[in-house]
Write a structure and sequence with these properties.
The chain is α/β, with parallel strands linked by helices. The protein is built from 11 helices and 14 strands. The strands form 2 sheets. It has an 8-stranded parallel β-sheet with strand order 9-8-7-10-11-14-12-13, sandwiched between helices. β8 (about 150-155), α5 (about 160-170) and β9 (about 175-180) form a beta-alpha-beta unit. α3 crosses α4 and α3 packs across α11.
């Protein structure tokens, strides 16, 4: 069994190649059970969460094992640790184990970009990234693989964190990136808005959004948190990564469904249906589209296979 380190994963997972790998796996036949959540008290009396995310094809089985430990900041450790195990589906033989943190961040950003390839306007030129965490660090590179942006805004609650992200992106050659402190103005100018935050309350107000915008919503992944308000939901044609996850696990959709603002039957489709051509994406230049991502185990498998097949 191969042990694959984060540095190798980062070197292999080029954004354009990962987007195409995701497209191909969504077009294939696979099985993806609902993820398992197990809550437990650790030795210090704090409740941690163990999440197991399996998926498989005829040839491969993948399992992501995640532990969320909210008190880790007191130990100067990340709140989330994750491993990915890849097995041969025919024999059950373990093939590889790899760090899943970088794997997850990149596949999440690339899934958003894949959705945007169907939902963002072809002439989209201005991208707004809201958030400065692990996933946000990959959003510009991923979205730039499917659309050509000549203006990119970064907004974060913590301005120093946002400025640091802008500096890193500029050093990487993205000279058209600037930090903004007026979120309302930036939303009004953006053609694509990509949000990856832990916000409990809506950051994006629907009345700020112009016609033709694409909303890419990644963060607020619990049933009580959300990044956009009811007006944004009502104005949008909504697509999801999966109905079983996004409609129930994310407050973005679960809250407006519970209050009667959103009819779950009005969801236009999911990412697999988009990739397979079973549904149409954007229908006009003035339509406001919204993609809500909850994160799927099959996305991890696509990324893990791309890594594994590059090193064997």
């Amino acid at each position: 069994m191969k042990i694959i380190e984060k540095e190798t994963i980062d070197a292999i997972l080029k954004y354009d190649k990962l987007i195409e790998a995701l497209r191909q796996i969504f077009q294939s036949t696979f099985t993806m059970p609902v993820r398992h959540h197990h809550f437990y008290q650790n030795a210090e009396g704090t409740e941690n969460t163990l999440i197991l995310m399996p998926s498989w094809t005829d040839n491969y089985i993948g399992i992501k094992q995640v532990v969320v430990a909210p008190d880790n900041h007191t130990k100067q450790l990340p709140a989330i640790h994750a491993l990915y195990t890849l097995l041969d589906a025919v024999t059950g033989q373990p093939l590889a184990q790899m760090d899943a943190a970088g794997l997850t961040s990149r596949r999440t950003a690339c899934t958003s970009a894949l959705a945007a390839s169907y939902l963002a306007r072809e002439d989209a030129k201005t991208l707004l990234i809201v958030g400065g965490g692990k996933v946000a660090q990959h959003l510009l590179q991923a979205h730039s693989a499917v659309r050509h942006y000549n203006q990119v805004f970064i907004w974060t609650r913590n301005s120093s964190k946002g400025a640091a992200l802008v500096s890193d992106l500029q050093k990487a050659g993205f000279n058209h990136v600037t930090y903004v402190d007026n979120l309302k103005e930036a939303v009004g100018q953006a053609d694509v808005i990509s949000c990856a935050t832990l916000s409990h309350e809506p950051l994006i107000q629907g009345e700020w959004i112009k016609a033709g915008t694409h909303l890419d919503l990644i963060g607020s992944h619990t049933p009580k948190t959300r990044e956009v308000d009811d007006i944004a939901i009502m104005k949008s044609s909504i697509f999801v990564d999966s109905r079983s996850g996004a409609l129930h696990e994310t407050g973005e959709l679960a809250i407006p469904i519970a209050t009667g603002i959103l009819d779950p039957d009005s969801i236009k489709g999911d990412i697999k249906e988009l990739c397979c051509g079973e549904i149409k994406g954007r229908s006009s230049s003035t339509e406001i589209t919204l993609f809500k991502s909850a994160g799927l185990a099959i996305e991890d498998l696509a990324a893990a296979l791309l890594v594994y097949q590059s090193v064997v």
